[in-house]
Amino acid sequence: MAQEVERYRKPTRILHWVHSGAFVVLFLTGLIIFIPGLSILAQDSITRIIHRIAVVLFVAAPLIYIPMNLKSTMRGIKEAFTWGSGDLEWLKAAPRYYFLNDEEAMPPQGHMNTGQKLWWLMVLVLGAVFFITGLIMWAFKEAAPGAVLEWMVLLHDVAFIAAGCMFFVHIYLSVIHPLMKGSLNSMTKGKVSAEYAKSHHGKWYREIS
After folding, report:
1. Which residues have C-beta within 8 Å of that of residue 72, sequence separation ≥ 6?
2. Could you give the angle at which helices 46-68 and 114-139 cross, rounded to 10 degrees?
3. Do residues 16 and 8 make contact, with C-beta atoms less than 8 angstroms apart?
4. How many other β-carbons are positioned within 10 Å of the β-carbon of residue 159?
């Protein structure tokens, strides 16, 4: 049996799937509200109710997780905002790696590669934008000035488009891309093979070895 190493603990995997499920519901219900041609599906307000229920789950899940896993949370946030020359090398090598399957082009990566750091950074930033703009549109709809609400809607829509695009890229690279076949295991079983860890996260593998 191939040797395996742990990538993500069970609480992190649970948060990932709960948060992802809530995001999918938010994206689909938001798409109905966002596209004028689909607005007929939102006329009975059920779509908006489902959207708000998913919002509660989307916000509550990390609020429950963070106090129970504060150390790993802070480490992850620090990693998302820590960028260096290695990340520039990754960006230069990424086209050859992902489009030509040239694994030799990619420099050794840490626990998160640059693409994962970019995704995680967008989750943090866009999540904050979603929360602030959504809260104002929901809780202060009657009290906030019209101009403020218009800006909140615009920012919410921009975040929606950016997050949606990145989400599909995330799905493709973590599930479909031929070089990333071990990625899904890290979020289902929590482990990846030692060979996958060596080839995709060389720096991190050396640290844990």
Report:
1. 9, 12
2. 120
3. yes
4. 21
What residues does 192 pair with on adjacent strands?
Answer: 5
Q: Note the Cα 103 to chain centre separation in Å.
A: 24
> One digit per residue, pLDDT tens: the chain, 209 residues?
568 999 999 999 999 999 999 999 999 998 888 887 776 766 667 888 899 999 999 999 999 999 999 999 999 999 999 998 889 999 999 898 888 888 788 888 889 989 999 999 999 999 999 999 999 999 898 888 999 999 999 999 999 999 999 999 999 988 888 888 888 889 999 999 999 999 888 899 999 88
- Quote the CA–CA distance of 53 and 63 in Å, as a whole number: 16
Three-state DSSP class for 15?
helix
> Is residue 204 a contact partner of residue 116, using CB atoms and an 8 Å limit?
no
Question: Computed from CA positions of residues 133, 154, 16, 205, in that sequence, does the dihedral angle turn out positive or negative?
Answer: negative
Instruction: Give the position of tokens 């479909």.
Output: 176
Report the chain's terminal Cα–Cα distance, integer Å. 19
In this structure, what are the phi and psi dihedrals at residue 191, rounded to the nearest 5 degrees? -130, 155
Q: What distance in Å separates the CA atoms of residue 82 and residue 84, rounded to the nearest whole number? A: 7
Q: Where are the domains of the chain?
A: 9-71
* Type of residue found at 62: P
108: left (phi over 0), alpha (psi -120 to 50) or beta: beta
Provide the CA 56 distance to its chain's centre, in angstroms: 17
The amino acid occupying position 99 is F
